[in-house]
Amino acid sequence: MSNVVNDTKIPNNVDLSSDKRLQRALEAWQPNFLSWWNDMGPFGFQQDDVFLRTAISVTSEGWANFDYVKMPDYRWGIFLADPVKDRTIGFGDQMGEPVWQQVPGEHRNALRRIIVTQGDTEPASVEQQRMLGHSCPSVYDLRNLFQVNVEEGRHLWAMVYLLHTYFGRDGREEAEALLERRSGDPDKPRILGAFNEPCTDWLSFFMFTFFTDRDGKFQLLALAESAFDPLSRTTRFMLTEEAHHMFVGETGVLRIVERTAQQMAEHKIEHPDQVRKLGLIDLPTMQKYLNLWYTLSLDLFGGEISSNAASYFATGLKGRAKEDQFEDHKALDTSYAMQVVKEGRLVNEDVPLRNAMNEVLRDAYVEDCQRGVDKWNRAIAAHGIDFKLTLPNRRFHRHIGIYSGLHADPEGNLISKDQFEAKRDAWLPSEADKSYVKSLMQKPIYDPKQMANWISAPKQGIKGRPVDFEYVRHEA
Question: Name one GO cellular component term (predicted).
Fold first, then answer.
């Protein structure tokens, strides 16, 4: 079992002190990170005591410590899951061979690209969410926001460690660039589209942490299979922290749904306008936000037919989520049935399976999303409300892959651009919808015993504390 050192400038279990050059490089990067955090992290809360969990171990028991900490003092560390003895490559052309402890020269550029892209998402989401504390629905939610933020910061550290350790000067330059790009900046945007989308209200935040962080889960699961063992071990531990982010999203949306459905039943309300008069978020508006963040997140998996995906699989760089569950780990002689567009019509086509690996990962993601949506719908039905939230067809509102540049309705039927634009506000949040949702969140709730009107209280608090615990000590 790896030895965790927590009493150094950079907590770690990678024996950082044995490589003085690497240690100095990372300690030189640390002030730049803290400068970025203070500039682009949660605005207005840096001196508050927040009840946060901090990773202190990689064991399943007692891996994190909960206590009050000011966010700039958070102990961002470098943690890799313990190595698997005699681990071999589990898929692709080199299946069965020993995994790599160093970067093979022929895969250097591809691996760097994978690590940089993953690393870029982590600070991006912090930047997207930096103003949300000023409209929080409760202190409980405020603490969860900050927990997500600091862990995204730690995930950035995880990728920066790999860049510094295995990619020399190129890696150091990439690590600096991760702090220079900005979410939504027209000149230096973040790499992936969903991470440049504004996330300025709490309905968006909950949808983001449900859908977009769930994409992160599946990307990490695929990278956990990598033949590059340091990347596999890094992402395996990141998954431990990622679970809470998705919990925040799933339960956040559930609490909004429950509050609206309960009030609709109590007041015998059917029309969305009547729901809004009660200061609640109506279910059709929730569907529009779902449509937006789900489709933006679908794009994060990349093109449905991808030579890069085929190459990553063949060379062992990136597998499928939970590769062990598949029978054929080479995927040489099988195909994937897919609908493609030819001459304006949808036609069935068999695509070589390796070229469809992005779609295989997207399939698992869609199935996982559906489980959460089913839970939301059960809450609606429990109050006798005749409404169902649905995942739109994966051809709807796409900007990456074979459906980009096309227009489809939420059922997946191909339509003209004019038809799409005419219905856009019925399918995606309109400016009026965004203004209404923001209007509910003008006054933050900093009293631990209060909860915003538009959301239900959670079933339980964090780490055995009550829901009305003082999770953030903030002077309003």
Answer: cytosol
